[in-house]
Amino acid sequence: MFDSVELKSDQQIRTMRRAGLVTRAALEAARAACVPGATTSDIDAAGAKVIADMGATSNFKGYHGFPGTLCVSVNEVVVHGIPGDRVLEQGDMVSIDGGAIVDGLHGDSAITVFVGGEEAADPAHVRISRTTEEIMWAGIAAMATGRKVGEIGAAIEERAQQLAPDLGLIEDFTGHGIGSQMHMEPEVLNYRAKRMGPKLKPGMCLAIEPMLVGGDIETKTLNDDWTVVTVDGARASHWEHSVARHAGGIWVLTAPDGGAERLRPYGVAPVPLD
User: CA-CA distance, 43 to 144, in Å (whole number)?
Assistant: First the structure.
């Protein structure tokens, strides 16, 4: 199975960086559109416009029939929220997941934002988001220093236990390889497991995406076959970056600075392929 892991050339990684920057720009436009009174369709339209204006293609639109350009997941929705007529209110917690294709190669990233800003939100909900983002960076740092893919999940779980053992770390959804397709081998768990997976090698590109909830980790999928919600109604956060490991180090393809600021506390410096 591990033989099926796609390894990219430096040039392919550079192209994935372009896809990553389109993805980032779309998410930032979606963030700006998260204002009271906006609908989740408005958020989707903001991201879609950026992807089209930059000459890229959405990799979510039509994926297994998904109707939106972005997944817009509000409050108790963990992932895969379908954009529609849900109206956003001050303090809502919104996870936005999206991606773009440039020259046949993919980018994928997710952020969690608050309608009206963090100051308008419940501090307990802000803590969930900030912790989720931090454990994502712990996983990214492990991709830089580890020997096997499983070390990423171990680092995510360990950091979650250090920062917020009371929060629930979702196990039903994982990260994944990314490149010529959006979802590829290997699976990237968000927790420690006996099966450590393949070796981390130059040319490997992974989407690292933990999710935390403020209650029980049990989820259910609604009748639309996409929207995943917490069973107990607890708030959820989702953060994700696409990351490349190459001969010189790692490069966070969907981060504006390649991940430099957030990786510094972990003693890791991203290495762009310029």
Answer: 33
119-132 per-position pLDDT tens digit? 999 999 999 999 99
The tens digit of pLDDT for each residue in 102-112 reads 999 999 999 99
Asked if 110 and 173 touch (Cβ cutoff 8 Å), the reply is no
Q: Which residues pair with 98 in a beta bridge?
A: 70, 109
Rounded Cα distance between 102 and 19, Å, is: 5
> Residue 271: how many CB atoms within 10 A of its CB?
16
- Going through the chain in order, the beta strands assigned E by DSSP cover 57-58, 70-74, 77-79, 93-102, 105-114, 168-169, 175-177, 184-188, 204-208, 211-213, 219-221, 228-230, 236-238, 241-246, 249-252
Question: How far is 76 from 210, CA to CA, in rounded Å?
Answer: 16
